[in-house]
Amino acid sequence: MKRIVVGMVWAVLAGGAAAHDPIFGLGPHVVYQGGIEIAPEVHVEEKGPELEVEPALELTYGITGDWAAGISIPYVWKRDGVAEANGLGDLALFTKYRFWRHDTLGVQQSAALALKLVAGTGDSRTAPPVGSGATDLVAGLAYGYESRRWYRWASLRYRFNGRNSAGFQRGDKIKLDLVGGVRPWLTGYREPDTVLLLELNLEHGFAHERHGRTIPDTGGTELFVSPGVFWTLRNFAVKAGVQIPVVNALDGAQRPSDYRAKLVLEWHL
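Above: the chain's sequence. Below: its structure in token form.
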């Protein structure tokens, strides 16, 4: 009975808060059992003359109240300063399992495991390539704290990159994300809701290889500070943010990121 009362109080006080996740990091949120999340999004990344724009459609289904799975279908447009290419990118299948949840008055804490399989379905022969030509696996662990006013998340992900048919293998990548959020105006469930986010995104990539030999001027570390906003109205949400590089420790003569940006629209059915 106590858990039921706490859950009811949480639902009344926090409204749609449980549906919030970071923009660039990984969060523990899962779609409710039988629910469907439709999320068209676009990701933009620029490095000097290099520009990549990747719109994608992400579909997620709630298998249980703690387990969800879905598919991401991307389309990639690239410019490397010399040539342009576009086409369907690498299809991804993903799943997330929330293995821990603790509700108290006005506060929910949870943790989840996530897996993503990125198939090499995009064309890696274009110049520049719109696909990797290899199968990659991403494993992640996420923690979230959500209250009426404050949010915080932490996540750790490791990407195991595969080798393509030409013997080329991108280096594995580690991502660490620390995120804080605040709801500046306390609103009711049927009213528009705004959460401001500030993320700290650390990425470390290992050197690329070709036929087992290390490729110079690859790998290294970048750190981004990423302000963003999460705006919701009942079952519809808009997520937008920009990653601003503040630390560049890339190996050799590599061009660092100028910026990255992301916009996501979400519908829960």
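Residues 87 and 187 are 42 Å apart (CA to CA).
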